[in-house]
Design a protein that fits this description.
3 domains; single chain; five-stranded mixed sheet; 41% helix; alpha/beta; OB fold (Dihydrolipoamide Acetyltransferase, E2P); inorganic pyrophosphatase (n-terminal core); 19 helices; five-stranded parallel sheet
Length: 582
């Protein structure tokens, strides 16, 4: 697929020199990568490389926090029962486990309830409030949902049940009338950071309650492993407070005593001592998610709360089996969705893919939407029908706010919510065709032909001769990686192959090749291109005709037979037509 290489504006030379010097002559490529992240001083670099829990914001800066913390303390002092209500995804289930464990630790009788994706749908619902009433709960703490639950909040009030909402999604025009609403995205909330995960908001509430109880703030840090899993899985920006929580959360996860997490790591074949954000995103997160996608998300909460190694491992195995079934369903549905999408794309005015099938499982439509975006690089909405109502998930591309596009069609929808690049929605069956037309128009108003070409953002140019053990040691400290702090992408040019390239994989879909700088060949690096078999002919041409290459890549470490070597992970390749970067 063609990519558009977007180079960061050239950093001020004096700034780069000054920062490099203050950091013990850090290589310029790494220094430029820091500058592109807004880092220009030694102190800022220190904070970036050494995130400190002391730099977390005061939880009481969040609107509603005083009331929320006081209400939980009141529940404890009065012996009231509390029901924790969470969403059915990774963020919601980790949030629920975090809050249930904490409430029980301070002496509250706490239970939890997670809506069933098919039976109850997304978010706070009356059925869950009825369960709280049956259990005799005086308070519901809703996590990762509730910010648009205006009617449901009114229903809880009718039942005489107090409600504390901890959410991080965009509020609607009306804020629910709850006992307290915690959501840093509220317009009149002055909390300094508004990109926490739902679990992150729950963590801030724990901090506030501990403060009210006069307990050490450090007690909240016990839950950072769960916060890290939610932060990585919910694809929130890894900057500001999230970077601190993620960095420290991964350290906590490496030594976690939480039996459910250790069981998950075991079935996913993850070495917790060396766990990274990618292991969470592609290993632990999907298995936790599998419970809510295909069955009952409450099972995942039970796993995270498990106090037995044996039962935790058994439950983790069940989730692993569910995840395998989910992947098989993904493949079947994706094949059908691709065919529908290709028919839509025959219309030149198709700016947003909207595909619908009554038989598709609602637990996998979000995954399929992501696959359509990867394949066709344009916004995609995948819909299915559940109990006569059409429900689905949307995913988008850089530069197109899918939430705003869906909001423009709100008159056709019974419910919607989400973020700039991911959203959920529901509507009556008869509205699909009209919705497809309207959302296509809404996306068309945002999109340009340039946006339909996938972007690779390049941090800095580099000579392969700069890359050594120190370079790699510093680069590793840029982690954890994720949105707003992606793996640095470097650009190298004037490259030549030192030996013939080869294909890899059972189907030959991957490539391996060896490159060096043409002007100085003292360093030869192995490079791999996953899924880049289409570039094999280009590599052969480069070698045969002695045409230099330019490449954008990430740097990684490969381990084989106990030997670790640096490896270039190619993102894109070109035959070089120029000798300097423009």
């Amino acid at each position: 697929m063609q990519h558009r290489w977007v180079f960061q504006p050239s950093a001020d030379c004096e700034l780069v020199e000054s920062l490099s010097s203050s950091l013990n002559n850090l290589p310029h490529a790494l220094t430029e990568a820091l500058v592109t992240r807004g880092i220009s001083t030694f102190e800022e670099a220190k904070d970036f490389f050494r995130p400190n829990l002391d730099h977390l914001h005061d939880p009481f800066l969040m609107k509603g926090m005083d009331t929320a913390a006081d209400r939980i303390v009141e529940a404890r002092d009065s012996g009231q029962k509390v029901m924790v209500y969470g969403d059915y995804d990774v963020d919601g289930t980790t949030s629920t486990a975090l809050m249930v464990h904490f409430l029980k630790s301070i002496g509250i009788t706490a239970s939890f309830w997670i809506p069933h994706r098919i039976k109850n749908g997304y978010g706070l619902c009356n059925a869950g409030i009825d369960v709280a009433e049956e259990r005799g709960a005086a308070l519901i703490v809703a996590l990762d949902c509730g910010i648009t639950a205006v009617d449901e909040a009114a229903y809880a009030k009718e039942k005489g049940i107090d409600l504390v909402i901890c959410d991080h999604h965009k509020p609607g025009d009306i804020i629910p009338d709850a006992t307290a609403v915690l959501d840093p995205k509220q317009e009149d909330c002055t909390y300094p950071f508004d990109e926490l995960s739902g679990c992150g908001v729950g963590f801030k509430l724990i901090q506030a309650v501990l403060s009210r109880l006069g307990e050490p703030a450090e007690e909240a840090f016990e839950y950072l492993d769960l916060v890290a899993i939610s932060t990585a899985s919910d694809i929130v920006p890894l900057e500001g407070e999230n970077r601190i929580l993620m960095r420290e959360g991964i350290e906590k996860l490496r030594t976690t005593s939480r039996k459910g997490l250790r069981g998950l790591a075991r079935v996913a074949k993850i070495d917790l001592e060396h766990v990274a954000s990618r292991n969470i995103l592609f290993g632990m997160g999907p298995r936790i998610n599998a419970a809510g996608r295909l069955e009952d998300a409450g099972f995942a909460v039970e796993l995270l709360l498990s106090e037995s190694d044996a039962s935790a491992y058994e439950m983790a195995q069940q989730l692993d089996e569910s995840n395998t079934r989910r992947r098989e369903m993904d493949r079947d549905v994706l094949k059908e969705a691709l065919a529908k999408a290709e028919r839509q794309l025959s219309n030149e005015q198709c700016h947003c893919l909207v595909v619908h099938d009554e038989e598709w499982h609602p637990g996998i439509v979000g995954i399929v939407a992501s696959r359509l975006v990867e394949r066709f690089y344009r916004p995609a909405i995948v819909l299915t029908t559940v109990n006569g109502e059409v429900k689905g998930s949307a995913r988008s591309i850089l530069g197109v706010n899918i939430y705003n596009a869906i909001k423009a069609c709100s008159g056709l929808l019974s419910q919607f919510g989400g973020h700039d690049y991911a959203a959920g929605l529901s509507m009556q069956d008869g509205n699909v065709s009209l919705f497809r037309d309207q959302v296509n128009e809404a996306v068309a108003s945002q999109i340009t032909p340039e946006l339909l070409v996938p972007v690779i953002e390049v941090d800095a140019p580099v000579s392969l001769n700069e890359i050594d053990k120190r370079f790699w040691a510093v680069l590793k400290q840029f982690a954890p990686f994720g949105p707003a702090n992606t793996e640095p992408v470097f650009h190298a040019e004037n490259l030549e192959l030192s030996r013939a390239p080869m294909r890899m994989g059972r189907d030959g879909s991957h490539i391996k090749f060896w490159v060096r700088q043409r002007t100085n060949s003292r360093h030869v690096f192995e490079a791999v291109g996953f899924g880049m078999h289409d570039y094999f002919g280009m590599l052969q041409q480069s070698m045969k005709e002695r045409i230099p290459l330019e490449m954008v890549f990430n740097l990684s470490e490969n381990q084989w037979n106990g030997v670790r070597t640096l490896q270039l992970k190619a993102r894109d390749l070109r035959l070089q037509k120029r000798t300097i970067r423009q």
